[in-house]
Design goal:
The chain has 124 residues and is mainly alpha-helical. The chain has one domain. It contains 3 helices and no strands. Helix 1 runs antiparallel to helix 2. The longest helix is centred in the first third of the chain and has 64 residues. The radius of gyration is 29 Å and the shape is rod-shaped. InterPro entries: Phage_holin_3_6. This is Phage holin family protein. Pfam families: Phage_holin_3_6.
């Protein structure tokens, strides 16, 4: 029977442990990269949503005063705008599971499973 060098199994065990540690580190780095992309997407979405809110807020005030001028009533002028937003709120609640939640879930899944050029280079 041929002889193996002393400490062969210890050497293989050490190499296997190093390999497992390196793979765990790679998984952690990939998870951190995906989380950072998702956080960046979330922050940019919040900034856009905040700016859109202020634009809609001031347009709503403008439209409210326009309806006050048309109806000659402060109550009815701003009531029309409030009714429009109430209708919009009801539509959002009605379609949130069918469209909004699926859209958000698909965006998160795309961020986590999107393959980039960096991912392709790491595997080769």
């Amino acid at each position: 029977m041929d002889e193996q060098q002393p400490g062969f199994f210890e050497n293989v065990q050490n190499l296997t442990e190093e390999y497992i540690q390196d793979r765990l580190l790679l998984l952690k780095l990939r998870a951190a990269d995906k989380s950072a992309r998702l956080a960046g997407l979330l922050v940019s979405f919040l900034i856009i949503a905040l700016l859109a809110f202020f634009v809609l807020f001031f347009i709503s005030i403008l439209v409210g005063y326009f309806f006050v001028w048309v109806t000659q009533s402060l109550f009815w002028g701003f009531g029309i705008v409030a009714g429009f937003y109430a209708l919009l709120l009801i539509l959002v609640f009605a379609f949130r599971k069918k469209y909004i939640e699926k859209l958000i879930a698909n965006i998160v899944i795309k961020v986590f499973f999107d393959r980039t050029a960096d991912d392709d280079e790491k595997e080769n």
